[in-house]
From TrEMBL:
<feature type="transmembrane region" description="Helical">
    <location>
        <begin position="46"/>
        <end position="72"/>
    </location>
</feature>
<dbReference type="Pfam" id="PF09335">
    <property type="entry name" value="VTT_dom"/>
</dbReference>
<dbReference type="InterPro" id="IPR032816">
    <property type="entry name" value="VTT_dom"/>
</dbReference>
<dbReference type="InterPro" id="IPR015414">
    <property type="entry name" value="TMEM64"/>
</dbReference>
<protein>
    <recommendedName>
        <fullName>TVP38/TMEM64 family membrane protein</fullName>
    </recommendedName>
</protein>
<feature type="transmembrane region" description="Helical">
    <location>
        <begin position="169"/>
        <end position="187"/>
    </location>
</feature>
<feature type="transmembrane region" description="Helical">
    <location>
        <begin position="92"/>
        <end position="113"/>
    </location>
</feature>
<keyword id="KW-0812">Transmembrane</keyword>
<dbReference type="GO" id="GO:0005886">
    <property type="term" value="C:plasma membrane"/>
</dbReference>
<keyword id="KW-0472">Membrane</keyword>
<keyword id="KW-1003">Cell membrane</keyword>
<comment type="similarity">
    <text>Belongs to the TVP38/TMEM64 family.</text>
</comment>
<keyword id="KW-1133">Transmembrane helix</keyword>
<feature type="transmembrane region" description="Helical">
    <location>
        <begin position="6"/>
        <end position="25"/>
    </location>
</feature>
<feature type="transmembrane region" description="Helical">
    <location>
        <begin position="199"/>
        <end position="219"/>
    </location>
</feature>
<feature type="domain" description="VTT">
    <location>
        <begin position="72"/>
        <end position="187"/>
    </location>
</feature>
Length: 236
């Protein structure tokens, strides 16, 4: 049996055993799901704060759990971190936890493939973005992270299903998610109405600037590749 197969099976078995063996894990998982589904800001902050000195770890694990399993808006978690830990520490926790969450989705897709990914996120969504990410993935991650309407987890799973290097994915995610985290951490609210329109407009404008830059980069890469191919043909 291949080592990769043993690793995959072992990981699943360990996670299942942990869940069914330890009742506190079951209770906290169910409670976390309830809170995330109801999107109750006050309840979420109280839940995280109840872990005391381990609250930063609890918040980070909740971010990963939300991305991999629940796939719900991250805004309330980012705001909760800013409220509980202050702006600077809250931003750092949200940013770091988001990177870990994105990496978890990326490696689940990379290790277990499309069938497993489709059980965690819709097949229709993956098919819609799959082809584009396969072709331009390393260039699109940064821009995709800036677009508010594009699900965070979808980008991570779709990237993991391509041949994209993890380093390219991580850099694009690290830079692209920062504006949203900074905005929500500073204002400490989930925007609605005009505020949401303005915030989305700013992020879309940033995405447009990145898109222009990336289009130029892709064009330059294609031009260089064409010149190299012509040179190879002449030398042959």
């Amino acid at each position: 049996m291949k080592k990769s197969t043993v690793f995959k099976a072992g990981t699943i078995i360990v996670m299942v055993l942990l869940y069914f063996t330890f009742e506190p894990i079951q209770q906290n998982t169910k409670q976390a799901l309830f809170i995330m589904e109801n999107l109750d800001q006050g309840l979420l902050e109280g839940y995280i704060d109840s872990f005391g000195s381990f609250s930063t770890i609890a918040s980070s694990l909740l971010m990963v759990f939300q991305s991999v399993v629940a796939q719900l808006p991250r805004d309330i978690l980012v705001i909760a971190n800013a409220e509980l830990f202050g702006f600077s520490k809250g931003v750092l926790i949200s940013w770091t936890a988001s990177l870990v969450a994105a990496s978890a989705c990326f490696w689940i897709a990379r290790a277990y493939g499309r069938k497993a990914s489709e059980k965690l996120i819709s097949r229709f969504k993956l098919e819609r973005v799959g082809g584009v990410f396969e072709k331009y993935g390393k260039h699109l991650v940064l821009m995709a992270r800036l677009i508010p309407s594009l699900p965070f987890d979808l980008v991570s799973y779709a990237s993991g299903l391509t041949s994209m290097r993890y380093r390219s994915f991580l850099i694009g995610t690290a830079i692209g998610q920062l504006p949203m985290i900074l905005i929500h951490s500073y204002f400490k609210e989930a925007f609605t109405g005009n505020a949401k329109v303005i915030t989305s407009g700013i992020l879309f404008a940033l995405a447009a600037i990145v898109a222009i830059f990336l289009s130029r980069t892709i064009l330059e890469e294609k031009t260089l590749k064409n010149f190299q191919n012509k040179g190879d043909e002449k030398s042959a």
